[in-house]
């Protein structure tokens, strides 16, 4: 299994629904799992990106699909 670092930003809709973030995070974990990947870490950040996600997956295709 390979590790992937994903840098991401909230969309405007994500910012507007920020209180739903814990539920959405669980949904993202399930989405990764459906493609054989596992979300290992999730960090909120300051600066250019809003979050950093560390994922373990069999290949880049699994990450892209999730």
How would you describe this protein?
With 66 residues, the protein is of the alpha+beta class. The chain has 3 helices and 3 strands. The chain has helices spanning 12-16, 21-34, 60-65; strands at residues 2-8, 38-44, 51-57. It has a 3-stranded antiparallel sheet with strand order 1-3-2. The longest helix has 14 residues, at 21-34. The protein starts with a strand and ends with a helix.
Name the features:
3-stranded antiparallel beta sheet, alpha+beta, globular, 3 helices, 66 residues
Largest sheet: 3 strands, antiparallel
Please state the structural category. alpha+beta
Order of strands across the widest beta sheet?
Answer: 1-3-2
- Strand segment count: 3
Strand content: 25-35%
Shape: globular
Q: How would you briefly describe this protein structure?
A:
This protein is α+β, with helices and mostly antiparallel strands and 66 residues long. Helix content is 38%, strand content 32%.
Write the layout of secondary structure elements.
Elements: E1 2-8, H1 12-16, H2 21-34, E2 38-44, E3 51-57, H3 60-65
Antiparallel strand pairs: 1-3, 2-3
């Amino acid at each position: 299994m390979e590790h992937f670092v994903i840098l991401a930003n909230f969309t405007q809709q994500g910012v507007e629904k920020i209180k739903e973030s814990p539920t959405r995070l669980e949904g993202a974990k399930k989405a990764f799992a459906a493609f054989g990947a596992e979300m290992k870490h999730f960090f909120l950040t300051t600066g250019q990106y809003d979050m950093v996600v560390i994922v373990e997956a069999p290949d880049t295709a699994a990450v892209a699909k999730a």
